[in-house]
Specification:
The chain is of the alpha/beta class and 211 residues long. The chain contains ten helices and seven strands. Strand 6, helix 8 and strand 7 form a beta-alpha-beta unit. The chain is globular.
Amino acid sequence: MIIDKNPKAKALIFDLDGTLVDTMPVHYEAWHHVLKSRGFKLSEELFMKFSGIPTFKIVKIFNKLFNINLNPQEVVEEKEAFFKRNIDRIKQIPMIVDIVKKYYGTLPMSVGTGGYRRMAELIINKTKLYHYFDIIVTADDVENHKPEPDTFLKCSHLMGVMPQYCEVFEDADNGLIAADKAGMIASDVRKILNLRNKFKPNNQLKNIYLY
């Protein structure tokens, strides 16, 4: 199957994790590793619900939702350390990267991610995507993160293209909501790649919930 951009799009914005790069199983296992050591468990459903939101904020949400007291900075550091140990497992998602290659040098393009810059650059370098993107907007660059539109609006501003002419490729509800709030063309890559079914964490991690 060959996919393409929306005919109305004059600029393209790509989410990183789960859109350009297949990182979600490693992220899920990283969360499981960190939370298990603290006596908690995480379901795939809850993991996907908060996809696109920075780890520091997710920990604060978990603390409030479940009346627990996790240290956000410790969780961030341990999760990132686990991810780095497993970074050789991540790969490009070819059908989406093909769009990047097709329009590289023809249309403005950027990455809009809820991840931190240090991790985003690590992933982009590891998967050899760095030379395609001069503009990378991360959690460090905006105050309000997905599902708020700030990440994508900053991409639009830096590309010099009005929001209504920007197409956003996303795999998470929070990112799609952000794109819609920004007045952009929102493309759900899950419909293209069937990523919900493709996401398969380790068998031993199935049916795990936060409680």
